[in-house]
Amino acid sequence: MPTQPASQTLRAALVAAYLPYLREVLRRRGVDAPGLESALEEGRAWLDEALEALFSLPFARQSRGPLELFQDAVRFPTAVLQGAGIPAVARDEAAALALPGDLYDLAPASSQVLGEDVWGAHLAWGAAKAAGLRPTVGLLSGDLMDRSKVEPVVGAAGFRLIVWRSATELGTVSSRPALALVDLSRGDADAAIRFLAAEGVRVIGYGPHVDDMALVRARALGAADAMPRSVFFRNLESLLPKPV
Questions:
Q1: Whole-angstrom distance, CA of residue 125 vs CA of residue 157
Q2: pTM recorded for the entire structure
Q3: Labelling 202: which of 105, 160, 162, 195 has CA 20 to 30 A away?
Q4: In this structure, which topology does domain 133-239 adopt according to CATH?
């Protein structure tokens, strides 16, 4: 098995965050049920085992992301709450589509909400994974002019550009990019940012300067940064990571 210290650091951080994070969410909601604490312990143990199995694989064979496993592990307390007859909470459409089984909105949208230790470990893992694969930069945009501006800059920096026509194509990529660029004017931008951030990919969103809410929402969904189009294209070269 290859040595992956970034993976083991992330595993420890995610497992350590599981119980405190969910206990606090449930406390704020004022939700309790018989057997809930046992379910939380079971979820933590499952998460530890699932992450161990995931990180025992080479990066190219890791078909799920670590945050995705954390989100999956909330099914244990969810089952107890559902069995106790506690009503599901209202969620926005994007969250319901991304995580249909998360009836009580327990799953974190990004590792940022789990604390600085987890967020930093997740970014370090994403960088290590990108370094272990052929370096690429992903672009979600249907604008040919955007591609014509981005591609030469990305190529000159030593990366290969991947262009996604829609957020549904993200799951078909066999290796995650070192950086993802998302056009926030697209209707599927939120779903794309949520997915990419969960995979530990550094995401930068760009959009019309008049749409401040889109920039704020992108950061809330896990984007490392979001900026007006003019700023993005002016600073694109400096935004790119250094190729490994």
A1: 22
A2: 0.60
A3: 105
A4: Rossmann fold (3.40.50)
